[in-house]
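User: I'm curious whether this sequence folds into something compact or stays loose and floppy. Could you predict its structure so I can see for myself?
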Amino acid sequence: PSHVNMKLIVHNILRANLKDSKGYPLAIKATKLGSLDVPYNEAFVKNMINRINYEVLRMAAAALGFTELPEEIPADALENEEFLRKLHHAMNNIEVLEGELIDPQSKRVFPISNGIPNMLLNEDEV
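Assistant: Here's the prediction. I'll summarize afterward.
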């Protein structure tokens, strides 16, 4: 494909800019998933641990059927290759091809079509 599909690392930073809503975290539902085989990059994953919202990533991964991430980041995370590989998989290999993102407060649905989330708002929503 000529574009990058919706991954959980992207979902982790997306927020809906709706008035009267903090717009984060967006719930995620998929009707069609894809899977990549992005080569494992230990340095990248270690660098991302403190940059992502881990709880949001874990919940999104679970919502898409990937339940192998522990509830909390392990104390030995930076030396725990098994954890780092699972985190890498959740962030980089799971793609949402079709589905939706849902604002937590307003319940406004943003469709994901062909791997691209449509976050455009109507005039009365901004």
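Summary: The mean pLDDT is 95. The radius of gyration is 15 Å.
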